[in-house]
DNA sequence: AAATTATATTACTTTTCGGTTATATTTCTG
DNA sequence: CAGAAATATAACCGAAAAGTAATATAATTT
């Protein structure tokens, strides 16, 4: 799965919320429906997209489909932000320097 | 600017690429057009969206509009990924533990 | 002042997305 | 085995997105 696609998948707030729920434990589709404001097919549609992005896996237990988070692909996206960190940390440095100067 | 909107703004690859270019220095619209595969209006349209998301600022110098990165809002987005880091670092821990056991 | 350069905005088109309802599929239960 | 429960898929729709060509605006140069 490439980075562009992953960004797109994560752009949808319902999908991010689902991943957030899955951080704590596996969830059935029904549980995720209850936690969302969407219809069951709406949730299933998003789950399919998450599956195709390899952000979740499923395991069947009777009629229940248990979805589990797979966070690994998120790493790639998080990496995109790395080069930008220096900007906000350098802002902090500026502030520190300013304070240092005041103290002198 | 709220998180949902920011995610959406960043979902567009051309916009991310523009931000990447702006990491190094200010750029005029013309330069960004040259660096992209889009028409000038296309670039201007994306720049407007980046402006409205407060991810860039502009300063005019004669007919040139110089765009500059403002990375601060990215921090909020990067934060979303924090709770997920434990997943990939715990994977690493698992690997380490496995290796440790092998050594014993 | 006219022509040129740099950028923004408008108007329009095509495509994609997210949502819904209806339906199919699978498994459990009485 | 019939009905219920859980989920997925299909078909459809409206709204939004991204792109372009044409045009407006502003500053520059000759």
From TrEMBL, chains A, B:
Domain HTH arsR-type residue range list: 1-89
Keywords: DNA-binding, Transcription, Transcription regulation
MF term (GO), any: DNA binding
Coiled coil: none
InterPro entries in UniProt: ArsR-like_HTH (IPR011991), HTH_ArsR_DNA-bd_dom (IPR001845), HTH_MetalResp_TranReg (IPR051081), WH-like_DNA-bd_sf (IPR036388), WH_DNA-bd_sf (IPR036390)
Pfam families named among the record's database cross-references: HTH_5
Top-rank taxon: Bacteria
PANTHER family linked to this entry: TRANSCRIPTIONAL REGULATOR, ARSR FAMILY, TRANSCRIPTIONAL REPRESSOR SDPR
NCBIfam families in alphabetical order: HTH_metalloreg
Protein name: Winged helix-turn-helix transcriptional regulator
Native organism: Paenibacillus oceani
């Amino acid at each position: 799965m490439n980075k562009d696609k992953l960004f797109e998948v994560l752009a949808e707030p319902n999908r991010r919320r689902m991943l957030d729920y899955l951080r704590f434990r596996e969830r059935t589709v029904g549980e995720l429906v209850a936690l969302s404001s969407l219809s069951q097919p709406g949730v299933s549609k998003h789950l399919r997209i998450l599956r195709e992005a390899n952000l979740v896996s499923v395991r069947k237990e009777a009629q229940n489909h248990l979805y589990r988070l797979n966070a690994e692909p998120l790493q790639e996206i998080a990496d995109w932000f790395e080069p930008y960190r220096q900007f906000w940390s350098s802002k902090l440095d500026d502030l520190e320097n300013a304070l240092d100067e005041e103290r002198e």
